[in-house]
């Protein structure tokens, strides 16, 4: 999914190591946000490229990849864009990893379309390329995809919101990601499908980039446009918390239903605290672990992973609704990330 964070000092150090501000690479050492596992000249090499190296979702993804690399006896190198949307940085990372002799690359594409030519060049050189979390456009540009079913994630919170409204007329605001980003489109469309609504039923739609501050501004704008909003869909939990802040400032935090997607620990605690009514939890560690295993298998016997593997999604709420399958925040906190 789409996830935006501020640049830490670690990323700046990485830029100094590589001379490319967009990347963090293994050669800079663990302090730069890169990592290796079981390094050796004869090791199978696997690359992991995330959208950023600061967002908790991608931190957990990296942890999953590192653990799986050790278990499968492969060498892991990592890189990340300097911001969510840094396609140029991801292209450079692919080129560097191919030059370093990786057997496979795992990537969460920042730009699902623009990254495709670089992926095709890597595949032409025999590199297995697997997308994690975010599909490429077209999805067939990679050998395989390990990800949440984002349409289903949206449907779950849409179904929940519909049930929680108990027949009341909904005034819906959607706090989305950015135009054309597949994760954002799928979650948005899934929410509307689950709610039984269309874009014509949305009284205010704003893009947030998945950022908390932008989520707050978006909610403020929506409240000016449509003060009677009573249902808010958000692309992720930072945007949801921004929306909550704006609603609380207007004294509306108790009478507006907020639903979201991600299932990070901060977001799950916000569900427990009543700031968010429900969230669809996904599992980044599993995505990365399965990806590393697939590359290790390819290196061993030449068998390529293919198609889409659903890594699961669970609706988390402490206010269960009839007809909507969910688990409580105790389960959510046991399985959250970040």
Structure description:
By secondary structure, this protein is an alpha/beta fold. The chain has eleven helices and twelve strands. Helix 6 (about 180-195) links the parallel strand 6 (about 170-175) and strand 7 (about 200-205). Helix 5 packs parallel to helix 6, helix 7 (about 210-225) packs across helix 8 and helix 9 runs antiparallel to helix 11. The protein is elongated and about 60 Å long. The two termini are about 15 Å apart. Residues about 1-40 have low confidence and may be disordered.
What key phrases describe this protein's structure?
alpha/beta; disordered N terminus; six-stranded parallel β-sheet; about 350 residues
Topology:
Layout: H1 9-18, E1 44-50, H2 56-72, E2 74-80, H3 87-99, E3 104-107, H4 116-124, E4 128-132, E5 144-147, H5 150-165, E6 172-176, H6 182-195, E7 202-207, H7 212-225, E8 231-234, H8 237-249, E9 257-262, H9 265-272, E10 278-281, H10 284-301, E11 307-310, E12 314-316, H11 329-335
Parallel strand pairs: 1-2, 1-3, 3-4, 4-5, 5-11, 6-7, 6-8, 8-9, 9-10
Antiparallel strand pairs: 10-12
Biggest beta sheet attributes: 6 strands, parallel
User: What characteristic shape results from the CA principal axes?
Assistant: elongated
Assign the structural class, choosing from mainly alpha, mainly beta, alpha/beta, alpha+beta, or little secondary structure.
Answer: alpha/beta
> Strand percentage, roughly?
15-25%
Overall pLDDT level? 89
Q: Output the helix-strand order.
A: HEHEHEHEEHEHEHEHEHEHEEH
Summarize the amount of helix as a percent range: 40-55%
Q: Count the strands?
A: 12
Task: List low-confidence stretches.
Answer: 1-41
By DSSP (H or I, 4+ residues per run), the number of helices equals 11
Q: What gap, in angstroms, lies between the N and C termini? A: 15 Å
Radius of gyration: 20 Å
Strand neighbour order, sheet with most strands:
2-1-3-4-5-11
